[in-house]
Design goal:
Structural class: alpha+beta
CATH superfamily of the largest domain: LigB-like
Number of domains: 2
Radius of gyration: 24 Å
Distance between the termini: 48 Å
Number of strands: 18
Number of helices: 13
CATH architecture of the largest domain: 3-Layer(aba) Sandwich
């Protein structure tokens, strides 16, 4: 029999915990009841270990992490509850997962309290991990726990790490729980600004799991996921990776969207490894349809291979001078973005080549791009018009970029970005980037510009 006995996707609203949001609990009653069903089903399978995949806590862009402490602790005091829990960690599982990841050259890294402290983080469990464990405790389960925190990796890597998690049990029976909410923008009063993409995203996930069409869940586009403002897709992808090669049935126990956030509880009954079809993860290769993007990728590759900037061939439409931004993404995760408002080179070809190399290696928010990662990056180039003075009434985040300046501080945001759906949201982000206090936003000088975006 397979050591992987049970799997589930669950949400993590803290208001389900006693002492938190008691006046709102009735609105999430369906989720609470489904959570109790999930816990009862897991307890019936009697796993020795529960592995929780969470999108919260200290996260790293380039790796999944395993909390490598002998004892795992957490509490809900940040949310106003006295509920606290302590669980023993399954060190054997952690060791096997680490070994498998090293063999397959995948970034699944154990991290302890000392290493977390160097990043100014503590070792406590996050609410995404603790909420399902609380329900399991209420249902009478006592065992060992493993906490896996996702990273901003390409979906294919998330899926491959899931395969490792599904195979690391050894002879120990274990269950796998993916913790994650769906969209956070379902209503006007949601945590993120309302976006109809949220309803579309949630329905796709619910239908995919209800119909056991897991490929449909895996192929949701980065654009839709970004606009849906979700936090559960990568945990789900990782869980589906663990189920790869197993005959699996799934059931949706409940779905509801109170407070503008999608809460889905679904369970999976996996068969032994080898009992089902191995899935080739659907990998979308960047197309680089425009000469602008082809040049940007060529410039990065040349620099990574030679250490020298490339002298681009200058031909129309890249022979005119213009400011340009080069953006790099790994799936839906920004990986670098550098640009110029006004042209600093003699022509657009040199502007793009220079900014592409800077985006790949000099954006202080990210580690430099490697040659191995380059082929997976989605690159876009925005060519800017000349900025024009504007007032707040002129702002249009779907069509116009924004520059805000105040007392020597300046910030810029490109137009048509997922999750930026109102003029106020656009201005808030620009002020935050520039270090302009929101109370001084009305004093800021505003300029707008249009862009031509190339993929």
């Amino acid at each position: 029999m397979s050591p992987l006995k049970f799997a589930s996707l669950v949400p993590h609203p803290p208001l389900l915990i006693q002492g938190i949001g008691d006046e709102e609990k009735k609105e999430a009653q369906a989720t609470h009841q489904a959570y109790q069903q999930f816990a009862a089903r897991l307890v019936e399978t009697n796993p020795s270990t529960v592995v929780v995949i969470t999108p919260h806590g200290p996260l790293f862009a380039d790796a999944y992490t395993i909390l490598a402490e002998e004892t795992l602790r957490g509490d809900f005091t940040p949310f106003g509850s006295v509920v606290a829990m302590t669980w023993p960690a399954d060190q054997d599982y952690i060791g096997r997962a680490e070994e498998l990841a090293a063999q397959r050259d995948l970034p699944l890294v154990p991290i302890n309290s000392r290493q977390l402290a160097s990043h100014q983080h503590g070792p406590e469990l996050d609410h995404g991990t603790m909420l399902p464990l609380w329900y399991l405790k209420q249902a009478g389960w006592h065992g060992k726990v493993v906490c896996i925190r996702i990273g901003g990796l390409a979906p294919e890597q998330c899926y491959e790490i899931g395969k490792i998690l599904g195979q690391a049990g050894g002879d120990t029976d274990f269950a796998l729980v993916a913790s994650g909410d769906l969209s956070h923008c379902l209503t006007e009063d949601a945590p993120s600004p309302y976006n109809p993409a949220g309803i579309e995203f949630d329905q796709l996930i619910v239908d995919a799991l209800a119909q056991q069409d897991y490929l449909a869940a895996l192929t949701i586009t980065p654009e839709l996921r970004q606009r849906a403002a979700e936090c559960g897709w990568r945990p789900l992808v990782t869980l589906l990776g663990a189920l790869d090669g197993r005959s699996t049935s799934s059931q949706v126990l409940s779905y509801q969207g109170p407070f503008g956030v999608g809460y889905l509880v679904a369970t999976f009954d996996p068969g032994p490894l080898g009992s089902g079809e191995r899935l080739q993860f659907p990998r979308a290769r960047p197309r680089d349809a425009s000469p602008h993007v082809r040049l940007a990728r060529q410039a990065i590759r040349h620099y990574l291979e030679t250490g020298q900037p490339m002298k681009p061939e200058v031909q129309p439409p890249l022979d005119k001078a213009a400011g340009a931004f080069v953006s790099l993404k790994l799936d839906d995760q920004l990986r670098g973005c550098i640009g110029t408002i006004h042209p600093e080179q003699d022509n657009l070809a040199e502007e793009i080549a220079t900014n592409a190399v800077s985006a790949a290696g000099q954006d202080p928010r990210f580690e430099p791009v490697t040659l191995q990662a380059l082929d997976q990056l989605i690159i876009s180039v925005d060519v800017l018009s000349h900025p024009e003075p504007a007032s707040f009434e002129d702002l249009d985040p779907a069509k116009l970029g924004l520059i805000a300046q105040w007392q020597g501080r300046s910030g810029l945001l490109l137009p048509d970005l997922p999750g930026v759906d109102s003029a106020q949201e656009q201005l808030k982000i620009v002020c935050a980037k520039a270090g302009i206090p929101w109370s001084k936003a009305q004093e800021a000088q505003l300029h707008t510009f249009s862009v031509e975006r190339y993929h």
